[in-house]
Amino acid sequence: MFAVEEINRNPNLLPNRTLGFHIYNAYHNDDKVLESSLMWLSGQAQTIPNYNCERQPKSVVVIGGANSALTVSMGSLLELYKFPQISYGLFDPVLSDPAQFPSVYQMATSDTSLSLGMVRLMVHFKWTWVGLVTSDDTIGEKFLKDLKEEMVRNYICVAITQKISIDLTMDMSSHQYFLRKIIESRANVVVIYGDMDSLLSVRFHEKLYFFPKILWITTRDSDIFNKPGSVYFDNFHGALMFSTQTSQMPGFEHFLKTINPLKYPEDIFLEKFWVTAFGCTSNHRKGDRSVCSQNASLDTLSSRYIDKIMSHQSYSVYNAIYAVAWALHEMFLVRSEIEPKRDGDNPITHPWKLHSFLKNIRFNNSAGNQVVLEKKRKSMTNYDILNHVTFPNDTDVLVKVGEFIPQAPPGQDFTFQEKAVVWHRWWTEAVPKRCSQICQPGFYRKAKDGKPNCCFDCASCPEGQISNHTGNEQCMTCPEDQYPNRDRIYCLPKLAIFLDYEEPMGKTLASIAVCFSLLTVLVLWVFVKHKDTPIVKANNRDLSYTLLISLSLCFLCSLLFIGPPTPTNCLLRQTTFGVMFTVAISSILAKTITVVLAFRATRPGSRSRRWVGSRAPISLVVFCTFIQVMLCAIWLLLSPPFPDADTHSDPEHIILECNEGSLIAFYFVLGYIALLALGSFTVAFLARNLPDTFNEAKFITFSMLVFCSVWISFLPTYQSTKGKMMVAVEVFSILSSSAGLLGCIFIPKCYVILVQPEKNTKKTLKNNAIS
C-alpha cells in the first residue's frame, strides 16, 4: 500500500496512469491454489479457462509467494499464459531455473553468508551440540546442506535435524513427537530456518510444550514470534535473530502512524488485523467491542504485532512493486514495441510483454540502493544480530547485539556485544550443555567409535607433543630443540649434554685414565731400571717396552672421548683407540709366539732357534699395526666421523656426540682387534702348560680372558645405551681392558722384581728349571 501510493504520487513514473492492486489470501493446498488462480484469471463469477468474464482491467503481474511452494503451485497454471510472477520470499534455487520457471522472478538473492554467520556465532560461544529445525522444502534443504558443511568444518555436531512441512493439518501426535525429539536431543541451542508459514505449523505457542533452557537462533524472515497469538513468548525470550540489513524507506514510519481502517475501508485484512491488535471494532460496524479510536496508530503496537522498521520481506515487496512500475514505464515509452488493443477507451496491456522489460530492469529505489532482477545473481548479505527480549506485560523488543559482515576483513566480519544480551532466565551465561566437556590444555580430542565427532574422550598428548589450547583436536610436536613440560602444555628448551670433565663421571674416568697411565709408566720405569735381570730378559724386553708404551697411550686415548665433540677429536678418538689397542694386542700375540718358539728352540736340531732373539716379533707387531692403520685410513677417507647432535634419544636433552660416519668401518676396526685378541688367547692357551720359569703364557691367557670378557659384554651394553652413557661405556671398556692387560701380565713380574728380588737370579731360575 505504501509503495503504490508513493508511485501514484510520482509525476515522473507512470504519468496519467494510476497503479492499483488486489490482495488475495494464500492457501497451502494445491487444489485451492489452482482454483483461486483460475478464478482470478476468469473473474469472480463462473470459472471458465481462457475467458475473462469481468470488464474491469486485468492485473499484469503477480507479486507473492512467502514460500516457494505457493509460487510453484500458481506457476503450473500461470505459466500457460506467460504471466509474470515476482516472489518476495526466501531464495529458492529451483525457481531460478529458466527452463522450469521462465516467468518467475525472485527478489531475494542467492546468499550463503547466513550459514557462515550462524556458525560464527556458534564458534564464538563454543556451542558444539546444536539442533536444526528447517522447513521441508528445497529452501530448507539447501540451507541445511550449507549449514551442516560449515558446522563440520568448525567441529560442531548436529544434535538433531527436524523438518517441518507446510501442511497446517499436522495432527497433535505429530506435534508431540516433534517437540519431544527436540527435548530428548539434549540440545540447548536450536537453529530455526524457513518461511513463516511452514514454521507456524509447529505451534510453538502451546504452553503444553514449553521448552526449558533452550536458546533459539532464527532469522527475521522466519517471523515465528512476530505474529499475534502465534507464540508463547517466554519460550523465545533471549532468542537470537539474524536480520538482513535493509535500508529504511523515507516516509514509511509516517505511513505506519497514519494508516487505519477508516482510511482504507475496502481492506478487510487491515480491519481484521486492527480488531485483533487493538481489541476494538471499526466505526462503521456494530458489536460488543468498543469503537476503535481515530487516533489509534500502528506505531504504538509491540513488535509482536508489527515491525517498527521495514523488514527484509517488506523491503522485497516494496522493490518488487517498483520493478513492475518501472517495467510498465519502459513499456509505455517504447511505443514502437507495443500495440495496445482498445476496449472502449481502456488500453489493454498484455502481461507476457512485460518479460523483456523485467529481465533487463535496473533502477535505484528511494533509499539509493540498486535493484536488479536477474535469475542467478548472487550476493553476500550483511546481517544484524538481534536479541528478542520479552517483558511480563507481554510486550517485547528487539535489541541489536551484533552484526555479521561477510565481506569485511577477517577479525572484523563478526562483532558481538555479550553484555548487551538478555539471556533466558534459565541461563546465567551463554554456556549450554555439551555432548563432551572441552579438553583442557595438555589433552586432545579422541573420537568415540560410533559417535558424532564432538562426542569424544580427552586423551593425554603423546610423548613429545603438547596441546596449549582448550579443545584441540590433535597435539602439536615440539621443535627438535625443545621438549614438553610435565603437563604437556608448552615446550621447554633442551639442554645440550655430553660427557664433560666438569661432571663427576667425567672427572672420575679422566682421573682413572691418568692414574693408570702413570702406573703404566712407572711399570715401564721398573722394567727399564731392571732391564738386565733375568725376569725382564726372559720374554723379549723390547716387546714388553712396546706393550707398556701402547698400554699407557691406550689409557690416555680414553681422554679423547671426554669433553665436547669437535671435528678433531671425532676423527682421532676411534682411530687412535683402534691403532693403540692393535699395537698392544699384537705385542701380546708376539710375546706369546716368542714363548712357544723359545721352548721349541731348546730341542736339538730345531729350526726355531734362528727366530728366537731376532727382529721377527717386532716385525709382526709392525705388520699387524699396519693393517689396522690402513683400515682407519680407508675409514677416514670414505666416511669419517663428525660431530653430531642427537635430539631424539633423550626427550629432555640434546646429546652432542660423534657420529661414526660408517658403522661398517667402525665394526671392522673392532673386529680386527677382536681377531688379534682371539689369536693371542688361542696361542697362549695352548702354551699354558710349559715350565713356569720362563713361561708367561698363563698370565697372557688370563689377561686375554679378561680382555675378551670386557669387550664381549661391551657390544650389547654399547648398543643399548644412548648419549653420554654410551661414551662412558666405551671409556670404561678401554680402561678396564687395558687395566686387565697391565695387571695380569706385569703386576706379578713387578712383585718379583721389587718384593722378592732373590728370585730374580739365574741360579734360582736354573734351580726351578731343574726341579
UniProtKB/TrEMBL annotation:
Domain G-protein coupled receptors family 3 profile: 505-769
Gene Ontology molecular function, alphabetical: G protein-coupled receptor activity
Ranges annotated as spanning the membrane: 509-528, 543-563, 575-599, 620-638, 664-687, 699-719, 731-754
Localization: Cell membrane
Membrane topology: Multi-pass membrane protein
Predominant location: membrane
Matches recorded under Pfam families: 7tm_3 (PF00003), ANF_receptor (PF01094), NCD3G (PF07562)
Key words of the record: Cell membrane, G-protein coupled receptor, Glycoprotein, Membrane, Receptor, Signal, Transducer, Transmembrane, Transmembrane helix
Cellular component, GO annotation: plasma membrane
Family stated for the protein in its record: Belongs to the G-protein coupled receptor 3 family.
Protein name: Vomeronasal 2 receptor 591
Gene this protein is translated from: VN2R591
